[in-house]
Amino acid sequence: MAGDRAALIALLKQRSVRFGDFTLASGARSSWYIDCRLTTMSAAGQRLIGPLALTEINAAGWRPDAIGGLTMGADPVAYAIAAASMDAEVPIDAFSVRREAKRHGTGRRIEGNFSAGHKVVVIEDVITSGTSALAAIEAIREAGGEVLGLLALVDREAGGREKITAAGVPARVLVTATELGVTSS
Length: 185
Prior knowledge:
This protein is of the alpha/beta class.
C-alpha cells in the first residue's frame, strides 16, 4: 500500500495541483489550488483511491452502511471506495448530498444508497475550512443518518480538519498539502 500511496501523491501533484491566483469556496484567496477531480475522475486515480481509502476506513474501525458527501467533489471518491469494497466482506454503497433539495421528482437532498438509520462515513475531496464537510454532515444527520467520521482525500492544512473534529466528528485524510509540496495560504 505504501507504493500505492506514493503513486497517489505523484498523480495528485501531476494532475491536480495548480499555481496562480485562486478564490477558494471559503472565499479566501490562494496562490495554489488542488482540483482533485482531475485525479479522482481518472482511471488511475480511481484504482488508487478506492483501496487506499477503504484501508483507512477499516483502520479507523468504521463499519459504514454507506459513504458519500457533497456532490460533486465527494462523488468520484465515494464511487471508487464503493467499487473497491466489492472485494471486502461487506460491500459499502455510495450516495451524494446536494447543496439543496431538488424542487422536482422526489425532492430529496440525498440521492443514492442512503436511508435514515444508516451509519455513514462522509467523504470530502479537499478540506480547507471544513464548511462543506460540515454542511454534508448536517444534511445527513437531518435525514436520520449516523455519521461515524469523515474521510478526505486531501487536507489543505488550513484548520478545517480541526473544525470538523471540534464538532465531534473524527476526521482522517489520505494526503496533506505538505505531502503535495504546497503550504497553506
